[in-house]
Predict the 3D structure of the following.
Amino acid sequence: MYIKRYNLCITKFKFLENKKYLLFTPKSLNIITPDINRLKFLQSYNNLPIDLKNENGIPTRLRRYANYNVDINNNYFDIQYTGKDTFKQNVPDSRRVKRTFELIENEYIYDKFIIDLIERCTTLTIFNSEKIPKSLNISLHQVRQICYPYIESHNSPEGIHQDGVDFIVSALVLNKKNITGGKSFIYNKNKRILHIKNLNQDEGIFQDDKDLWHYVTPISSINNYIGYRDILGIDISIIS
């Protein structure tokens, strides 16, 4: 199935050109989601399967996955869900091993919010590439981090890193409750800090993944209750 959309945002978001990294909100990218749709999508985080456990077998990360191809033809983006459930990264650590994830629930594959976000990320990629790409592959990660009293949750256990693609949304925070931590760091190619930000709800970071590096601190619960952080992460690879 394809979605073909007229590319109005190319001129509308021209001010986003030449950004090595960008802090954004859905509103700043003109992504408007009705409250009822937003609430339904947020509730779907309760259905995520376990992705990562700590050394004691306690779940600290849940995840679903979706993969899309985007063909860029003049004034149109053709966005196709691939149905692919495997993911590996072009990196020197353990993330280079192919992993299999459960897929995002069917009703959200072509959800307007998801498609708008993919389209805006495509636009940002066009603006910040040396030449206009013809085709992209986009991996979307729906992730919930969970922390407990005295048990942290790590989303960057590999430390300061790159994801092995061209551009990323390291995190778009959609919801968080009863947590401290989760501070995002952006580094230059020499791993010197460029920016530090503790992302609030509806804040995200788009950045170059070829020259820049990133890291996020673990989250901890504030009191004797479970805490969580719901995010979307996006990996963008230029195919041609």
